[in-house]
User: What shape does this take?
Amino acid sequence: MALDFSGLPKLWDVKGWLLAILSREKHPLLQFVRYGIAGVAAMVANLVFFVLCIRWVFISPDVVTSLPVEFTGFGNWLSDMRQDPRVGNFVKANAVAFVMSNVVAYVLNFKWVFEGGRHSRHVEIFLFFSVSLFSFVIGTTVASILVGNFGVHDYIAKMSDVVFAILINFVCRKFLVFKN
Assistant: This one.
């Protein structure tokens, strides 16, 4: 299966590439580049809101705990995490960042990257946010474990959250939410 690069600007035509990327042309390579740009914009929004919340809304002490010598069971482990203020602050800041970055992501994906119409607008928005919520829960759970049980710094744990979100969201949005 050969890739069709006809209709794309020459490799050295920077202005042509910029205009093609900013257009709504449906070439798969251009769509992939636009998805990447929209993803970076949503990630930046997520990180900005997360940092704003951690620094000025849910102030989190920079305390790094040591790795527990033994794990005494899931119930004790979960109870200990609930009592750690860093975990609570992380989850609250991540929730605010999640909502704000998803507004950015949906607008960019709908207006610029993908073609709507696979579902009605209400269903599309519901699926978009459902996929995001699913990846949010998985990423936040993993990051909370890193913060609460392993003493990982908030920002390092946030990077693991971002990686999980990117992987889950791309696959689900491409094949479940929008038209291919």
Q: What stands out?
A: Confidence is low (pLDDT under 50) at residues 63-72. The radius of gyration is 20 Å. Residues 27-177 form one domain. The first helix runs from residue 14 to 22.
